[in-house]
Amino acid sequence: MDRNNSMAILKIAKMGHPILRKKAKKVKDPSSKDVKLVVRDMLETLEDLGGNGIGIAAPQVHVSLQIIIFEVRVEDSEIANNIPLTVLINPKIKILTKKTNTDWEGCLSVPGLRGRVKRPNKIKYSGFDLNGNKIETIAEGFHARVVQHEFDHLIGILYPQRMEDITSLQFVSEARHTTES
Ligand code: NI
Fold first, then answer.
1. d(CA 68, CA 52)
2. Cα of 156 to ligand 1 centre, how many Å?
3. What is the pLDDT of residues 132-161, one digit of tens each?
4. What structural domains and CATH numbers belong to the chain?
């Protein structure tokens, strides 16, 4: 297979690294070669993690740019629909409802842990793809949650900061001891 040997699996920044608290910079040209290279490495990094990640944001690979990637597969949540792999550059989010739901979240930058986070049910998100075309989508439920989680990485927020009740923060490996499903 003719693989470009400059492809790279990148190191994931973990909670405590200052880049995760920074506001990411806007991408000047979403269709530029530099952006394609960053996205290619983000995809390869996500793939290398063996399907554990359903999304990744550029600051998580030490690149402080407004780029997020996500994919939602049915097995990721009982209530989810499939969302094809999406690369979203310079995203904006508009909350469309006051209704919220609370569900578990995990994060590649907070390995081994999960916590319950309340999020708005329905959002509209917009941004640009790798060809510089505008994306605009209405998302609900799990899809909306994933996009909000990844978007938060671009404004320096990790999900534990969104938790209303920190007592649900737990190691996934210990979750069998809880009564909650
Ligand atoms: Ni995350």
1. 16
2. 11
3. 999 999 999 999 999 999 999 999 999 999
4. 18-177 (3.90.45.10)
Could you list the active site residues?
150
The alpha carbon of 69 and the centre of ligand 1 are apart by a number of angstroms equal to 11
Task: Give me the sheet containing 170-171, strands edge to edge.
Answer: 100-105, 113-120, 170-171
- Residues in the chain predicted with pLDDT less than 70, given as ranges, are 1-6, 51-53, 74-81, 178-181
Ligand 1 centroid from CA 33, angstroms: 25
Residue 61 per-residue DSSP state: G
Return the half-sphere exposure (C-beta side, CA atoms, 13 A cut-off) of residue 145: 25
